[in-house]
């Protein structure tokens, strides 16, 4: 299966892509712990079936020092003992924020309370933005059929402007 279009080779697509990368950079530079960012990026990408993003975020998390065990277990985080309470709260928010069409309540009050227990306002803002951002990126990649497997850690670092 070949990609339908190379968005970064298209003038309009490249403008949008660079702006999205800059949004991602602002989130990366936020006070939200990098470990949490990697876990959320990976989990949401798994839910959305974005092979390109699962590949990217697994490799970026590995390069940042995340363990193979935690990466392997992120899809089943509720049934594991390897994630902190703060990470679990972030993963719950990310999942509920991703599966909006599957539920009538969006992010539950219980999940929101757990997130507020562990994160300050700036971190919450980054977590909410990260969840929305990765959902948008997943959809772009799935729609154009970008495939996973060839990503190398740091590959997109030079695209911001």
UniProtKB/TrEMBL annotation:
<dbReference type="InterPro" id="IPR029032">
    <property type="entry name" value="AhpD-like"/>
</dbReference>
<protein>
    <submittedName>
        <fullName>Alkyl hydroperoxide reductase AhpD</fullName>
    </submittedName>
</protein>
<dbReference type="InterPro" id="IPR003779">
    <property type="entry name" value="CMD-like"/>
</dbReference>
<feature type="domain" description="Carboxymuconolactone decarboxylase-like">
    <location>
        <begin position="21"/>
        <end position="96"/>
    </location>
</feature>
<dbReference type="Pfam" id="PF02627">
    <property type="entry name" value="CMD"/>
</dbReference>
<dbReference type="GO" id="GO:0051920">
    <property type="term" value="F:peroxiredoxin activity"/>
</dbReference>
<dbReference type="InterPro" id="IPR004675">
    <property type="entry name" value="AhpD_core"/>
</dbReference>
């Amino acid at each position: 299966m070949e990609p339908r279009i190379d968005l970064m080779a298209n003038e309009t697509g490249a403008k949008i892509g660079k702006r999205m990368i800059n949004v991602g950079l602002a989130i990366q530079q936020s006070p939200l712990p990098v470990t949490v960012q990697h876990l959320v990026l990976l989990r949401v990408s798994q839910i959305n079936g974005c092979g390109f993003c699962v590949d990217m975020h697994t490799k970026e998390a590995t390069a940042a020092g995340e363990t193979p065990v935690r990466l392997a277990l992120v899809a089943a985080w509720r049934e594991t003992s390897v994630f902190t309470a703060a990470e679990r709260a972030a993963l719950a928010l990310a999942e509920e924020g991703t599966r909006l069409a599957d539920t009538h309540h969006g992010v539950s009050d219980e999940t929101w309370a757990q997130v507020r227990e562990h994160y300050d306002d700036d971190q919450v803002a980054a977590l909410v933005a990260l969840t929305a951002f990765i959902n948008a990126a997943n959809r772009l990649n799935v729609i154009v059929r970008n495939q996973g497997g060839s990503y190398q850690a740091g590959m997109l670092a030079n695209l911001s402007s």
